[in-house]
Amino acid sequence: MFSRKSRADGGLALLAALALGLYLIFLVLPLLLSLRSSFTNENPLRATNEFIGLRNYREMASDVQLRDSLVFTLTLAVGVTLAANALGVAFAILLNRTHLSYRVMRTLAFLPQVLSGVIVGFVWQTILTQDGLLNNVLTSVGLLDEPYPWLGSPRAALVSIGVVLTWVLSGFTTVVYLAALQSVPIELNDMATMDGVRGTQRFRKVTWPMIAPGTTISVTISLITVLKLYDIIAVLTGGGPANSTQSTALYIVRLAFTSDRLGYASAVAMLLLALSAVVALAVTGALRRREVTL
Length: 294
What we know:
Largest sheet: none
CATH architecture: Orthogonal Bundle
Low-confidence stretches: none
CATH superfamily: MetI-like
Mean pLDDT: 87
CATH class: Mainly Alpha
Number of domains: 1
Strand content: under 5%
Order of helices and strands: HHHHHHHHHHHHH
Helix content: over 70%
Number of strands: 0
């Protein structure tokens, strides 16, 4: 009995050590190497690289492309997070049924989340290009006189990317809010109905406070996902037109692999990491305090 328990404990310890080793190798080590690189002028085209201190970080203060990418990324993150979570709540309420057809629709609602970002980008690109499916449909029914540049102007491209990301993230937010709704005790809804609390009033006074933990998870992960977004934008617009839809992650990749400025790219990556951490901690803290007050 004792030996069996000891072997089980030893197996769990081995798995824990393996998990810790993988975490150190694939997360902590690359992070430390990138941090070290951010203090150098590392360039793969040079034989040697020099330590330059904080020069990369000082350069960021006057980098117009970096500033524009941060503004675009933050604007997109806030807009998409609000829209995706609003849709997630609405879809979760509609799909919170036990019938087989509703279970099928839940699966369909989550489908965008499991698709590769590259595939999503290519599919939506064929829909939104000048001669794409959307313009063909709208012009054929007379809603447009000529094709509209959905990806060809800065404002329209921002909105188009926002719609695509909202569509993708709504699958995740729907599942989170469905799980939160199903954890609400049935007795609470029954008591609210007996007290004459119905419709939107019951949602506001009973359901919404009870799904507050789900809101915290959904909002935080949605924000982080958009802040580090690269693949969908790279395929959909390539950062254009005129770099107006260049996310910070896309700018980092271009600095590293197009301009060969690995040192400066690492410094920008450290900035994005710090920004994401601050935003995530601030939002999580605010939503946690909201959970207590509701």
